Amino acid sequence: MGRNSEEKTKKEKEQQEKVDEELDKSGNENDDNAKTHGEILRQQIIDGCETFDRSPSSILLSSFTAGLELGFSFLLLCSVFSFFQGSVEEETLYKTISFVYPVGFILVILGQSILFTEQTSLLTLPVLSNKRSVSSLLKIWGIVIIGNLAGGILIGLTLTWIGPQLGLFQTDVIAKIGEHYASYGILTILVSALLAGWLMGLLSWLVTYSRETTSEIIIIYIITAVMGFTGLHHSIIGNIEIFSAMLISPEIDFLSYLKVLITALIGNALGGAIFVALLKYRAFVFNVKLP
């Protein structure tokens, strides 16, 4: 039994060494060509390791900034909803606001602030490639989530006050958007968030593939607009929506807020880690043959 275990460990080590060798080879390929699967994977692992190596205070501050910056999407959602309210049906309004939904994501990703859903798959890859531990992954996820949520709560408090003061929207708009986000069953929210996490993981992968800022903006816009149009549950902007509504609407209490938020966080994490990080990594590993 012990011998079989040793042989299995040795085989796994050889496999990992071969995978690392192939990834290193990918890094030396011609930059004039389109990036290969291996090149993208290698860059994602490098980027993920760089985030792991940052100090906790730096990660917390960057993720807090991301939570704040994502609030500009919420500001536009409420403003556009209010502007067209009464002119079109409410169901059409929820589709219309999806066209401004990507703005905060563009600010966050191009500004290189740390957003949990974008970093989920990115941070999972160093663990899959045995360069970082699961415990360090959970720790860094925790820091990023705390920072994102804290930033979102602060910007939510700010916009709930400044929006009506500037005449951009009234509190009933905040309540409607938050109630709409929280109006689904737990299983529905979980699967919806899983799909959103999958899309955000793909966003990170495709941004790594792109070579210029314009293409990055287009990629970010398309993917996040899809999430907005279909109403998929993104935990971080959803935190702003439902927290702000909780301050106003009797329909949402603190328990409902926590239940929806935790479900969305779990779904986003699973979507990014499983459907992007794990599958993309395993697709590369399965193509690596031992000598």
Automatic annotation (TrEMBL):
GO terms for molecular function: formate transmembrane transporter activity. The chain crosses the membrane at residues 59-84, 96-116, 137-162, 182-206, 218-237, 257-279. One of its GO terms (cellular component) is plasma membrane. Residues 1-34 are annotated as: Disordered. It comes from the Bacteria. It is a multi-pass membrane protein. It is found in: Membrane. InterPro entries: Aquaporin-like (IPR023271), For/NO2_transpt (IPR000292). Keywords: Membrane, Transmembrane, Transmembrane helix. The keyword Cell membrane does not apply. This is Formate/nitrite transporter family protein. It comes from Christiangramia sabulilitoris.
